[in-house]
Amino acid sequence: MELLDLKGKRALVTGGTKGIGKAIADELAKAGAQVIVTARTNPDKTPHHFIAADLTDANQVTQLAKEIDNAFGGVDILINNVGGLTTPSGGHSTLTDVHWEQELELNLISAIRLDRTLIPKMIEQESGVIVHISSVAGKQALWNLNLAYAVSKAALNSYSKALATELAGKGVRVLTVAPGATKTAPMVRFINDYATSAGITAEEGMKQLLAQTGGIPMGRMAEPEEVAQLVHFLVSPSAAYLTGAIYAIDGGSLPVVS
Q1: Of 149, 159, 194, 247, which residue is the catalytic one?
Q2: Has the keyword Oxidoreductase been applied to this entry (predicted)?
């Protein structure tokens, strides 16, 4: 248990007020970490230290870093969880420049921007862990459903790997977690919207969506808490020799070897 203990660690979880982000924040707090969460709004009244910020706005990222530095002196753990599918389905012809730009800004640039702001303190203290929350879509794009989102996550995977190599000798580990279908409110809305547009039930919509990815061998979606437990392990002393890897947590759905 000592190897999973996070007492004395300062952790920032972006998008930490709901879904996977909330589950991660709660899990790290249970392990003893001092948890800071950020999101544009805080409707859930989180028990963790909350700082409002829109990470697609460079000025707000700078202000976030200043507040963290003033209150906590930096962070030991950074979970880049902010992201999401915001673009319409239908393939390349439905996606405008604005669609592509907003998806890249949300799922890639926001993480790069925050990393660049907080990494110097990690290098100075010669320790730190960064986890980028990606998606199995980064390795398996569905052209008719999530093209821009999948491309942005594939770019995040590549960036994360390169950053890990750069920082490996400076005491900072960088890892990527790629969830598959996870039972969150946005996922439920996505399934319901898809089913409504197709004129089928939500259950039928879920079956159709999962069929496009080959299904889930374990027969169910992940719970947010299961993703959080993986993240907890990766940021803990138990994972001290791990960096640069992508960890899919998808119930076996990704039909590739690596």
Answers
A1: 149
A2: yes
